[in-house]
Design a protein that fits this description.
- By secondary structure, this protein is of the alpha+beta class.
- It has two domains: about 180 residues, Beta-Lactamase; about 70 residues, Winged helix-like DNA-binding domain superfamily/Winged helix DNA-binding domain (Arc Repressor Mutant, subunit A), CATH 1.10.10.10.
- The protein is built from nine helices and five strands, in the order H-H-H-E-E-H-H-E-H-E-E-H-H-H.
- Strand 4 and strand 5 form a beta hairpin.
């Protein structure tokens, strides 16, 4: 039996699944896992990867009518949702209520407990009194929320919603949990790769800025005969007086010098 936080006071029947249904669910799970396995190799942006995760989860988790993938950042004991992606508009509306309006719901509970959370009748679920009623009035009655955890580090969550009641039984939770573990690793690795790329881009920009500043210093020295330190101080004063970044001031000086040189060559 799957281990998860079930809805208190509700004990839905576990449906008997045919061999054909079990085989079909396994095929869908493998397809979702294959998609997850290729995420980092594709090297997309984190926002694109979240969309992919949501799509693969919809394929892999039986009973889901819509899914969402959420990325969070932990600040002390607080969770801060950074961004999320969904497969359907109704999921976007539900998660907006959960994350932005109420700060209450199954996904938040799941991320705090690091355990899957299931509800088969959101309108009567006492765990989220402000969240369940509005969602049930949208015609959505079941949810399965899964934390994405690597080691002890929480990365985010996957939410699956269904219009029918008691859509996620033990079988669905087991398959969803099998999907969530590699999904968490893929999202974690994608974040590391995106962070490394961003750092490399910042370094490249810094090197480019340094080169332009050095060129501007050389131009000022050639015109005025001052030292490198004095030339840099002149650049810094212009930057402060005009409230313009130093590398932009330097680039302006370099471009002006290039323009003058071209005019001189033509004359």
């Amino acid at each position: 039996m799957a281990d998860y936080d079930a809805q208190p006071g509700r004990a839905p029947e576990q449906p008997e699944l045919t061999d054909a249904q079990l085989q079909s669910d396994e095929v869908d799970l493998r397809a979702g896992l294959q998609g997850v396995a290729g995420i980092v190799a594709g090297g997309g942006k984190v926002s694109e990867i979240l969309h992919d995760l949501a799509d693969f989860a919809l394929r892999a988790i039986p009973g889901a009518d819509g899914t969402g993938a959420t990325l969070v950042r932990c600040v002390g004991d607080s969770l801060r949702v950074q961004t999320w992606a969904v497969t359907a508009q109704f999921v976007e509306e539900i998660d907006t209520v959960q994350y932005e309006d109420l700060d209450e719901g199954p996904c938040i509970t799941s991320m705090k407990s690091h355990r899957p959370v299931v509800s088969g009748s959101l309108g009567s679920d006492r765990r989220w009194p402000r969240f369940g009623g509005p969602v049930a009035r949208m015609g959505v009655h079941s949810v399965l929320a899964l934390p994405l955890v690597v080691g002890e580090q929480l990365i985010g969550a996957i939410n699956s919603y269904a219009h029918s009641r008691d859509a996620f039984a033990d079988h669905a939770v087991e398959l969803a949990s099998q999907f969530a573990t590699p999904a968490a690793v893929s999202l974690y690795n994608a974040q590391l790769l995106a962070g490394a790329r961003e750092h490399a881009e910042r370094l490249q920009r810094a090197l480019s800025s340094r080169a332009v500043i050095d060129q501007a210093i050389g131009i000022i020295r050639s015109r005025s005969g001052v030292s490198a330190e004095e030339a840099f101080e002149r650049l810094a004063r212009i930057s402060q007086n005009e409230n313009v970044k130093l590398h932009l001031v330097a680039d302006r000086i370099v471009q002006e010098a290039v323009r003058r040189a071209r005019l001189w060559q033509r004359s």
